[in-house]
Amino acid sequence: MDVRGAGKESILDCVRVQIFGGGGGTMQEGSKYGNIVRYALDRIGEGAWKAGAKLPSVRAMAERNGCSVNTVLRAYEALQSEGYVYAKPKAGFFVAADPDRPSPRATAAIPFDAASPDESAMPYKEFFEYMTKAVFQRRGALFDYGDPQGLPSLRQALAKHLQDVGLFVDERRIFVVSGSQQALQLLVSMPFPNGKTHVLVEQPTYHGMLRALRTANVPAIGLERTESGIDLERLERHFQSNPIKLFYTASRFHNPTGWSYAKSQRESIARLARKYDVYVVEDDYLADLEHDSRNEPIAANDGCDRIVYVKSFSKTLLPGMRLGLAALPPPLVETFREHKLCADFGTSSLSQNALELYLRNGLFDVHRKSVRATYRDRMTELIRVCRETLPTQVTLDAPAGGIFASLFLPKTLPEAEFARALGAAGVPMVPGERFFLPGFPEAKPLMRISVIRADEAAIRRGVELVAAEARRLLRTTPKERDEASGGHWI
Ligand SMILES: Cc1ncc(COP(=O)(O)O)c(C=O)c1O
């Protein structure tokens, strides 16, 4: 949100939280310090002080407000630490350019809508060393295009890495992809040896897959997924009577619900795929967060003969590296190679080399354990706080782990309205409609909640706000809410 586009109230509310650290109570209303911050934000907010403009000198501001130079300095430094202004030695303070200024909402928010990790849980500095090593020790790779399938030595390391999840795949079937999203997009667009045309997706499902289907203009069919999995008879009927090229599934820690399939369901899916000549694309994007080694992927049930196994490094490492892998059944390898080559000639060799060094030195394993524990603790806290705090009409079907869960809403709490209210309260979440095919009935309206960027304390604060918003909306009728907002709900 651009400061200029925001109402004054919202800026100040956020600033109170950001700079003065919490509820209005901690800010001394009317203090000189507060007045200076407020005045500067107003000027910036309404565009009177443009990017690059010099702020009044500290001395002039002190005189104007009848306060000490120190008070002005503290106020300017608070604005600086929040990115609104910057200091030039011996010249004074200047208004920061828009891109350098964080969105007040974004920094004040507890980002329950996040899908990418924060710095605190990621080995950024450590990985940076490996990037540097990749540049210096393997600089030859930077002067070449490399194999579109991926660095052979990295593929060997990945084949070994996959054994940890119970997959024994020859490296000749492994592709390094520029994020698992790329694998999904290529699989959706390319022809399959079974000659079929349609894609079957769980409902709800990962919205990035729905996007890929939409842009590739591929016909899609939905199959309901609930806390107890999918109806296997329905799955069989789809496989039998529709031209299903592939069935896309996130077998564990599903996005957006966090659910995982039971062993018997995973085995049945693999069996039915083989029986009806359907491929399964298993998106195991959170495999590294699994605590129970007996929970193997669907692909472990057929050695990747019918199953395309897709894995991401974005949630446990760095999404900006754009690293993922796809392990393919042999009949798909050549077509996938051709499509991957046309997409980008291969994934960045810099990222690939850094990952290989990182994996080979055993650091990924160490990091994986720590990140797994971090997210498990957060999820445990989310489940506990939701149970204690949310009104009984709003329920959370506890996931086995991972980073996402869904809050299920009663009909009296419309999803879109709740989403807007949560955004305004600084606890944004993603509304369920994003995870459904157009026209597919959302049996239980939902909101996706994520713990990837919220630690336990933030979860506690955030869920309190969510519960308060839910109670407020449940107390009033839609008509009353509409009237209270002057006809348009904000
Ligand atoms: C289920 C699922 N699959 C795939 C992806 C894409 O991840 P990547 O960054 O590896 O492309 C995401 C990203 O959020 C996801 O949630």
UniProtKB/TrEMBL annotation:
Alphabetized PROSITE patterns for the sequence: HTH_GNTR
Transmembrane segments: none
Superkingdom of origin organism: Bacteria
Signal peptide start and end residues: none
Cofactors required: pyridoxal 5'-phosphate
SMART domains linked: HTH_GNTR
Record carries keyword Transmembrane: no
Name listed for the protein in its UniProt record: PLP-dependent aminotransferase family protein
UniProt organism field: Paenibacillus antri
